[in-house]
Write a structure and sequence with these properties.
It is a single chain. With about 100 residues, this protein is mainly α. The protein has one domain. About 55% of the residues lie in helices and about 5% in strands. It has 4 helices and 2 strands; from the N terminus they run ββαααα. The chain has a two-stranded antiparallel ribbon with strand order 1-2. The longest helix has 20 residues.
Length: about 100
């Protein structure tokens, strides 16, 4: 499935990036910005950011079920992503698109 038509990024591309990112010793939270930068891409219109977040969540669970990432790391990452999402919801509706860290 195509997640970002501007940069031609698929859900498989995101999954492969997540594998690389989450197997780093000090893995960052895999936000869309982190994942896109890992792939050496940039969001252009940021329309794909909500879908990218959904794909990241789904792929984290899938990779964990397959035993490709540590369940503890996956749990910790999901908790941090949920906290970020909750903080974003508390922000005013007119917040700029840079909340996804990559619309720079």
């Amino acid at each position: 499935m195509i997640v970002c038509s501007c940069q031609q990024i698929s859900d498989l591309d995101i999954e492969l990036a997540l594998l690389d990112i989450l197997n780093q010793p000090e893995a960052p939270i895999p936000t869309p910005g982190v994942v896109y930068r890992h792939m050496q891409k940039r969001m252009q219109c940021c329309g794909c950011a909500p879908l990218a977040v959904d794909v990241i969540y789904a792929r984290l669970e899938s990779l964990e079920r397959k035993g490709l990432i540590c369940p503890y790391r996956s749990f910790s990452t999901r908790e941090r992503l949920l906290r970020l999402q909750q903080q974003r919801r508390k922000q005013p509706a007119n917040t700029p698109a840079d909340e996804y860290e990559s619309c720079e």
